[in-house]
Amino acid sequence: MPPVVERETLLLYPLGTGISMRIWTLHPSYLDTKGLLAVWRETLLAQKVLKGETRGYRNHPQLKRFKELSDPVGAVARYLREIHAEAVRRGYNFSADKIAARDYDGQIACTRGQLLYEWRHLKEKLKQRDAAKFGTLEAIAEPVAHPLFRIVEGEVEDWEIITR
What is residue 60's predicted lDDT score, i.e. its pLDDT? Predict the structure, then answer.
């Protein structure tokens, strides 16, 4: 049976719980099931934050690139639509009704350094939790970005919290 995102998974995590937010620059097709569920949940939380519906995570660094746009909620909604499309391709049951009706017709510039940093980060996660998925991605040198992002030359973005 395909994963279903239950209401309980959408609870707003209090600060200091160790729950982090990752809005991947990578195309969602690279994510394993756990990663796809997490990015759906975390980006729905980001949408709530940007709509002013919650106080937590307002200053989370992952939101910086959205906050700088003319329509941050529309951009996050567009991001979520691609996550939803990937879930549908996999036969998962994510509720499109949770996505804001707004849209964003632009792209967000993001550096190649950021994309590659996230790529290494994801492959390390997959090496630990999903060897089969890791095996399908291991030989890919440079991944495709989520369609919301336009890749430009540069180092890791200044908002990224680097983990070693």
Answer: 79
